[in-house]
Specification:
Low-confidence stretches: 360-383, 402-425
CATH architecture of the largest domain: Alpha-Beta Complex
Main location: membrane
Protein name: TIC 55, chloroplastic
Largest sheet: 7 strands, antiparallel
Structural class: alpha+beta
Pfam family, one: Rieske
CATH superfamily of the largest domain: Naphthalene 1,2-dioxygenase Alpha Subunit, Chain A, domain 1
Radius of gyration: 23 Å
Oligomer: single chain
CATH topology of the largest domain: Naphthalene 1,2-dioxygenase Alpha Subunit, Chain A, domain 1
Organism: Seminavis robusta
Mean pLDDT: 78
Keywords: 2Fe-2S, Iron, Iron-sulfur, Membrane, Metal-binding, Oxidoreductase, Transmembrane, Transmembrane helix
């Protein structure tokens, strides 16, 4: 499969609650700097984060008062959601805007399903509007957990499809994994593991015993980045859902939301301040626990990735470096073989020359607004009770101010696939 065909998919981009609703957002996706913004009508757009005039980042600009275009902060050029240039202030009053495509910005189709935004990364081909993720109501994921992790997309899913690492790598994270003796850990073992794969992804089926109780589990990975966990085939719907997409070759954005196979009719109810407070308390506690979970094996995954990259080309098959002795390693083998056959061993990334070379530790000039958002991890880790309380109050104030109940003002691990920016005075 060539690089263009691998891009002809709906990639998960972000939960909308992690993006500013009235200001451009700088988002790095598959090594490509994007600007993601929302029109006054509530439609989301994604474009190359680069004004064609003098290459200034559009994410440092603003949305027009009418809410139907994005304005470059360098010379005021304006671009509609389709990418067409609609305003060049320096042109004479009687001059028309050149219709040449070179004056437009490249736009990428983006769709909102529930609270999750999905992006089509090959705008030269019409997006597949009949794709299950665009048609099936059960894909309307609700706002949940989101952050970036310091290792690649393929190492994330290789690890997710390795069921036996959990009791060791995440030992002590929660009650289910609170084991210190090897014999106790061995109770959490996997048997009868079977794998199968096709062009769409990889599936694992196995029996897992935890504290003397055995359950049948099915794990599904679907390209370009969806993982389902189902326990006991008689149950309806997955017990866990993770979607993820690559930021660049060394980072991945991970999202975990509420997946409902039988969504009820949507009803809009105005929430009381008590309901908002309860939601924010749950959100902060939920984020703290998941941050602890993913932090516990982050180094263990980035370390082998760097070793393999240093030893040979980035397209090397990690299986040639591993010594796999257990039947439980079948998931690792199945994913890596699929990864090589389906993607040629790597995902296509944008040209590194497109990436900004200077740090964006600068003050935002426009209304003192920040062009990046801050992750819960920055405000809740190490703060104990006071840190948690402060984070809850922050998010409650944001939700009331914006009239939302999602996690407003939350980004990914200090920066959203870019660099940190601090507000001006």
């Amino acid at each position: 499969m060539n690089a263009e065909e691998t891009l002809q998919e709906w990639f998960p981009l972000s939960f909308q609650a992690y993006l500013k609703q009235d200001w451009p957002n700088a988002v790095l996706h598959m090594g490509r700097p994007l600007v993601v913004w929302r029109s006054a009508e509530g439609t989301w757009f994604a474009q190359d984060d680069m004004c064609p005039h003098k290459l200034a980042p559009l994410s440092d600009g603003s949305i027009t008062a009418t809410g139907d275009a994005i304005r470059c902060s360098l010379h005021g050029w304006q671009f509609q959601g389709c990418g067409t240039c609609s305003m060049i202030p320096s042109l004479p009053a009687n001059a028309s805007i050149p219709g040449n495509k070179k004056y437009a910005v490249r736009s990428f189709p983006i769709r909102q399903r529930g609270d999750c935004l999905w992006i089509w990364m090959d705008p030269s081909v019409p997006p597949d509007e009949n794709h299950p993720r665009m048609q099936d109501a059960s894909w309307e994921l609700k706002n949940g957990y989101q952050r970036e992790l310091p290792y690649s997309w393929d190492f994330l899913f290789e690890n997710i499809l390795d069921p036996t690492h959990v009791a060791y790598a995440h030992c002590g994270v929660g009650k289910e994994f609170n084991r210190t003796e090897v014999d106790d850990i061995r109770e959490n073992h996997v048997t009868n593991l079977q794998t199968r794969s096709n062009n769409l992804g990889v599936q694992l089926k196995f029996d897992r015993t935890i504290n003397g109780r055995t359950a049948n589990e099915t794990w599904d990975f679907l390209y370009p980045g969806v993982w389902f966990l189902r326990r006991n085939t008689s149950e309806t719907g997955p017990a866990g859902v993770i979607v993820a997409s690559p930021i660049d070759t060394n980072r991945v954005r991970i999202m975990s939301g509420q997946y409902n196979p039988n969504p009820p009719p949507e009803t809009k109810k105005k929430q009381s301040w008590k309901a908002k407070l309860q939601r924010q308390i749950f959100t902060v506690v939920f984020h703290r626990s998941l941050n602890k979970f993913f932090n516990s094996d982050a180094f263990l995954l980035r370390y082998p990735q760097d070793l393999i990259a240093a030893a040979c080309s980035e397209n090397s098959n990690p299986l040639s470096h591993y010594e796999l002795a257990s039947p439980a390693d079948q998931g690792t083998v199945a994913f890596r073989r699929w990864h090589r056959q389906r993607l040629g061993g790597k995902l296509p990334m944008a040209n590194p020359s497109l990436l900004p070379k200077i740090p964006r530790q600068i003050h935002c000039r426009t209304h003192g607004r920040t062009t990046q958002q801050q992750h819960y991890y920055d405000t809740t880790t190490g703060g104990g009770f006071l840190g948690t309380a402060y984070a809850i109050l922050q998010q409650l104030f944001a939700s009331i101010s914006h009239g939302t109940t999602g996690q407003c003002g939350i980004g990914s691990s200090g920066s959203f696939g870019g660099s940190k920016v601090v507000a001006g005075s």
